[in-house]
Design goal:
The protein is 68% helix and 0% strand. The protein is globular, with a radius of gyration of 15 Å. The longest helix is centred in the middle third of the chain and has 17 residues. The protein is mainly α.
Length: 129
């Protein structure tokens, strides 16, 4: 029986920007339909594309982590990745994205996530959603 690793299934999606945007849009429609309802489709696609650009700087290397990165921009703050502790872990690009997000999900980052929630309120960034 032929078995495929998840990387093999998702590599074609990561390699094709259009497929990746579509995949993330479908993911948001399933898990955050409120986001889909709140934005016009062209603007939503622009936001997804912008999120992919930012995530790519951190070498997010799998579809699941890319989806998570995009969702976190809505669920936490548009510039959550600028919080010092979170940025430090995301910048460790020699590690897999899955491993970095696993660390960021640990209890020791609870305060960092809470701090990140306030970044969009106090920043001059134009990344507000």
């Amino acid at each position: 029986m032929l078995k495929l690793r998840k990387e093999q299934l998702h590599d074609p999606v990561l390699a094709d920007r259009h497929k990746l945007i579509k995949d993330i849009e479908e993911h948001l429609a399933e898990y955050r339909p409120d986001i889909i309802a709140a934005y016009s489709r062209p603007y939503l696609l622009w936001l997804i594309n912008d999120s992919i650009d930012i995530a790519s700087k951190f070498r997010i290397d799998d579809v699941f982590s890319m989806r998570l990165f995009v969702r976190l921009r809505w669920e936490i703050a548009p510039i959550f990745y600028e919080q010092m502790q979170i940025a430090h872990v995301l910048s460790q690009t020699e590690r897999s994205a899955e491993d970095r997000f696993k660390e960021l999900g640990s209890d020791s980052f609870a305060q960092a996530w809470e701090d990140a929630e306030h970044l969009d309120k106090s920043s001059d960034s134009d990344a507000h959603f």
